[in-house]
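Weekly modeling sync, notes
Attendees: AB, CL, MP (scribe)

Item 1: holo prediction request
CL wants a bound-state model with thiamine diphosphate before deciding which constructs to order. AB pointed out that an apo prediction alone won't tell us much about the pocket. Agreed to run with the ligand included and paste results into these notes for async review.

Input as submitted:
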Amino acid sequence: MSVENKGEEIKISYKDFKSQVISDYKIAVTSRECSVLGRREVFSGKGKFGIFGDGKELPQLALNHFFKKGDYRAGYYRDQTLLMAQGLLSVSNIFASLYADLDLEREPMSGGRQMGGHFMTANKNQSNEWLNLSKIKNHSGDISPTGSQMPRLLGLAQASKIYRNLKIKNSKNFSDEGNEIAWGTIGNASTSEGMFFEAINAAGVLQVPMVISIWDDGYGISVSNEEQTTKQSISEALKGFQRTNTEKGFEILSVNGWDYLSLIETYNFASKIARSEHVPVLIHVKELTQPLGHSSSGSHERYKSKSRLEWEKIYDCNLKMREWIINEGIATELEIEDIEKQIVSDVRNIRREAWNNYQSPIIKEKENLIKFESTLKKITHNDPHIHLIYSHLEKIEEIGYKDLISAGRKINLVLAKYDYSGFESYIKWFKELYEFVSNKISSNLYSHPLKDLEKINCTKPIFEKESKMVDGRIIIRDNFDKLFTKYDNLIMFGEDVGKIGDVNQGMEGMQKKYGKYRVSDTGIRESTIIGQGIGLAYRGLRPIAEIQYLDYILYCLQILSDDLATMSYRTVGKQFAPLIIRTRGHRLEGIWHSGSQMGGLINLLQGIYILTPRNMTQAAGFYNMLMKIKQPAIVIESLNGYRVKEKLPKNLGEFTIPIGEIETILEGEDITILSYGSTLRLVMNTAKRLLQEGISAEIIDLQSLIPFDLKNKIKESISKTNRLMIVDEDIPGGASAYILHQLIDKQNIFNFLDSAPKLLTATAHRPAYGGDGDYFSKPSEDDIFEAAYEIMNDSKPNKYPLISYK
Ligand SMILES: Cc1ncc(C[n+]2csc(CCOP(=O)(O)OP(=O)(O)O)c2C)c(N)n1
């Protein structure tokens, strides 16, 4: 058998071809049956929500034949057939995820954390060691926001380019000379997202081996291509990206999703040019259907016309494959029917087994709780509440851990009124189960566990008598220089980072010295700058992605929040992408150049470390520290610090600043003032004025907002001064509220305070431009002075009478 393929031929014996086709058909039918039964499980109440890959089986089976070990996928919730074909997703796994089974063996994609349909394979083990990714078919973890796989896809593809062009030591786990393809999948409607266009443009510029398949079923839930896409066709709309004989660009291919042979030809051609020449390819897979509708949330009869529904029945890709198999004589109708019957029966049995497996450990715990019933009744002298709790428990049919814990908490309330003897074993059972389940739900927020931060040896910066005073930017630059030499997999990129060495010259000369693959300029496209970083970090490189100003992080906040920040959590620690983000902010002027919005970041980026060094030595120390661990982090340098003189440390590239620790930069007795970043300079200046009034301020640099003061040192300071002020240039209720929450909830400072704490923040509006604008928008030295003075008035009104204008 040979198939014509744009000059290439796929040679395969007819016997092998036949068995490949039959094997593919079996997977298609199995996958479809999972979708059909899965949907029913939701309707019967066993699962909460179902989204499946029905109608997209065939193109995924074709793609699978060209997906090699070492390749990567960034896709979305329709791709179950591909993973099934690769042996990475079993029927039983599909049902376990529908039930949100917390057991990682049974539900390996997220241990019940994600809705079904979100797939992944591990890139690390639980000790944070890389797996050999060259030996695996890699699936970077899917996320629900449509189009959000695109930024990461760019980085996954770019890593091949970097590995092909740089000789990086110890890279065999990540690449074989850059021969890996990053396969993307996306729905037709999601191509309307900005991130899609950003990524396509960047891939065309960078010429990276990305093969993106668009599963086009004509709709995005109920909205048709007519309302989604110019010319109702994404491949038509993108024609300007098509490469020509003289210009590089994309190879754009179109194929019908029900045509098995054409799909095989198309994927064969695409994979060849992407793998060998690093040409990005877009495959528009048309004429697909969605036989069960978008998801379990509604039915497509509501928005599809009768004729469309009829057409979908005829062009169902599985049905078309079936017809083709019979017409070509690959199998008889009877043989096909036997295959189908067997599969339907197998899937049903496995579904039942998956439900029983999910329920059995919970039922076992229920039995354990029931064992305590008579003792608890006896101890509580037959308290009627205990009777009620147990009889309610008996009535629950499909039981979850929450039902047991909820019953247990009600029992605990009753027990609180009795002497704690006789029910210790019950309490032990309750505590263990509570801890077990909450750990199952809440572990792995950070890829570098906070408790392990202490284990890293820190090296202090060394200063000598003759150490020079230099501009801050020199410290940053020379420190990066050392890091480039020390880590051959360090890659830095961003807007204006390459040729001019960043807008503040902190990377001056680095591109010249280390080349364009290690230090590069990017387009103005923050979302895919972060995506590049995620993909590169995922594949073993150590990227530092630069976002030029903190204000523009809003453009990539969604990707940072949805993808990077959730990666460790959503994969239960099976994946990481230790990306470092470099940016600059704080204390500048103007609505879009002040870099103050820390609360926004803190709220949305739990899972990422957020570091706010007060000067460039601290910043360099954080970069040096982050290179030692595998954890995504953002370092926000002080924009007005690049020209401020600092002492040049001797051990650049080596010294580290501990993460999650505060630094007391001035000791005092009367009041603890907390701040971070550039604002600290104002606080320090104010301390002198306060001292003139006899107020001794203890000033603490928070410097690490996430993680926050892991050793609870602030509490020690407040227990000494008994007064607290937080100075923050963010809006009221922004980062200052987060800081106070940490102090009240985690450090329990409330009882140490003699006066009400003060949160001195900027105004609610964006900071105005100019000197007056700054003075009236953000905390000034006068504001800081007066606020501290007023706190002192509370306990010493005679010594510090209220200032009259207030
Ligand atoms: C950013 C975002 N907006 C909206 C949604 C809700 N939503 C989920 S799927 C979907 C339609 C996607 O259609 P398409 O890209 O064609 O993929 P299909 O589901 O048809 O395969 C929408 C609007 C979402 N998940 N993310």
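Recorded for review: Residues 1-7 have pLDDT under 50 and may be disordered.
Action items: CL to compare against the apo run; MP to circulate these notes.
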